[in-house]
Design a protein that fits this description.
Elements: H1 27-46, E1 56-57, E2 65-66, H2 105-130, H3 144-152, E3 159-161, H4 167-173, H5 177-184, E4 208-209, H6 218-235, E5 244-249, H7 256-267, E6 272-278, E7 281-282, E8 285-286, H8 297-302, E9 306-311, H9 315-329, E10 337-342, H10 361-370, H11 373-384, H12 389-412, H13 431-446
Parallel strand pairs: 3-4, 3-5, 5-6, 6-10, 9-10
Antiparallel strand pairs: 1-2, 7-8
GO cellular component, one term: mitochondrial matrix
Catalytic activity: N(6)-[(R)-lipoyl]-L-lysyl-[protein] + 3-methyl-2-oxobutanoate + H(+) = N(6)-[(R)-S(8)-2-methylpropanoyldihydrolipoyl]-L-lysyl-[protein] + CO2
Protein name: 2-oxoisovalerate dehydrogenase subunit alpha
Length: 465
């Protein structure tokens, strides 16, 4: 039987060609390009040699390291923490005098409404999970600016790998409230056919790869996708330049995949932007229990990657940093960039978590009151004169109504046909799968009162087609 092949349009086009009997036409050129690139790399490395009487090390592992006759162990405490870039302070006042908004008032309002929509949807869906109307949910309270602002600085053709707290990325790029709800309720309109957990969105049309549960798996995938984009540009220089944006939390940076991804991207000069939401807590684990170094930004420097730390509650700082990061990622044929956004997680990690078991409630309430990304952008907009209390009230009421409408419609839709659980692995169903379908059909006939098959499109009959 034949397995379904990946689309040639997929940015992960560098699939395991050596294991396939049929190579796509451009692969020989790709292989030649890679070999040429590797040859240049090795030639440059071999040019590094230690000259007699030199006053510094000239070695591939430590180029231009000065010799010292005094033994000294470096202490992390002697280095100041990396600065955090900010454009607008907590009062909505511009503190970077070189900053000039590059968006119209209408464009800013649209992005602000995206942040509001995510915030309102999160509250409704969290409550819906508590009511038993869906199995799982993750909110992004306090982190709305990071996802919406970064997405606004990317191009629609750029490829995105999210973790699971980037509802704002999807919203900004065109994911509708109905799209969210269809996935959350796993109904027949869900492109994933109900096979994934809630909040594991994906969209081929929006160039966003489907979210997967394991932490950090998306990071080496993003490096590979970026390398594929680089090779595509080598094949056809007329191809529009694209980057990959990979989102993750500081907890994911404790996984081995994080280090592999950064090292691959750095050594292969891949056009990828790593966007870290450092929100202070992995699930039940404060950052101080995760690492002792200077956040995640210091790791980017360690891998030789251009890095910036930004105030994640400052919409404009995040957007400006991402714009520049995209420019850098496309320079000189491509290179990785790391953006660490400092943004406090106001919410529980998920509906499976009670964060007050490992942090004080007063701490969370203080952050809500003192510094909120939605409130900060709103203050800036009000100072500019393009927003006010009446517009705020109207926007919240309209968004809430739209969310509840999409919620109601999606909840009433039927589930995908039961048959779909056996499909899409092979081009045609194998004899084993057909046997399993028959066994399931017999089981349902034997115990008709134990299973509500009426909520699935076609009911049990879909197994006999």
């Amino acid at each position: 039987m034949k397995r379904i092949r990946l689309s040639s349009q997929c940015p992960l086009a560098l699939r395991r060609a050596t294991h396939q009997s049929r190579l796509p036409a451009p692969v020989p050129f790709v292989v030649a390009s890679i070999l040429a690139s590797n040859t240049r790399h090795h030639r440059n490395a071999s040019a590094i040699s230690q000259r007699p009487n030199s006053n510094h090390v000239s070695f591939p592992g430590a180029v231009k390291s000065a010799f010292s006759n005094t033994m000294h162990f470096e202490q992390p405490s002697t280095y100041p923490a990396l600065a955090t870039y900010r454009v607008v302070d907590q009062n909505g006042e511009v503190v970077d005098q070189s900053f000039t908004p590059d968006l119209s008032d209408d464009a800013v309002i649209k992005l602000y409404r995206d942040m509001l929509a995510v915030s309102i949807m999160d509250l409704i869906m969290f409550d819906a999970q508590r009511q038993g109307r869906l199995s799982f949910y993750m909110v992004s309270a306090g982190e709305e600016a990071v996802s919406v602002a970064t997405a606004s600085a990317l191009e629609k053709e750029d490829v995105v790998f999210c973790q699971y707290r980037e509802q704002g990325v999807f919203k900004q790029r065109g994911f509708t409230l109905s799209d969210f709800m269809n996935q959350l309720f796993a109904n027949q309109k869900d492109p994933g056919k109900g096979r994934n957990m809630p909040v594991h969105y994906g969209s081929k049309e929006l160039n966003i790869h489907t979210i997967s549960s394991p932490l950090a798996t998306q990071l080496p995938q993003a490096s590979g996708a970026a390398y594929a984009l680089k090779i595509q540009r080598m094949q056809d220089p007329s191809t529009p330049p694209r980057v990959v944006a990979a989102y993750f939390g500081e907890g994911a940076a404790s996984e081995g995949d994080f280090h592999a991804a950064l090292n691959i991207a750095a050594t292969r000069s891949c056009p990828v932007i790593f966007i870290c939401r450092n929100n202070g807590y992995a699930i039940s684990t404060p950052t101080l229990d995760q690492y002792r170094g200077d956040g995640i930004a210091s790791r980017g420097l360690g891998y030789g990657i251009e890095t910036i730390r930004v105030d994640g509650n400052d919409f404009w700082a995040v957007r400006e940093a991402t714009k520049k990061a995209r420019e850098l990622a496309l320079q000189d044929g491509g290179k990785p960039v790391l953006v660490e956004a400092m943004t406090y997680r106001v919410s529980h990690h998920s509906t499976s978590d009670d964060s007050f078991a490992y942090r004080a409630k007063v701490e969370v309430e203080d952050w809500k009151r003192r510094d909120n990304p939605i409130a900060r952008l709103r203050k800036w907009m009000e100072a500019k004169g393009c927003w006010d209390e009446n517009k705020e009230k109207e926007a919240r009421e309209n968004i809430r109504r739209d969310v509840l409408k999409a919620f109601s419609e999606a909840e009433r839709e039927k589930k995908p046909p039961i048959r779909t659980m056996f499909e899409d692995v092979y081009e045609d169903l194998t004899p084993d799968l057909k046997k399993q379908m028959k066994e399931l059909s017999s089981h349902l006939e034997r115990y008709p009162d134990e299973y509500d098959v009426g909520e699935f499109e076609g009911g049990k009959d879909s197994l006999s087609r």
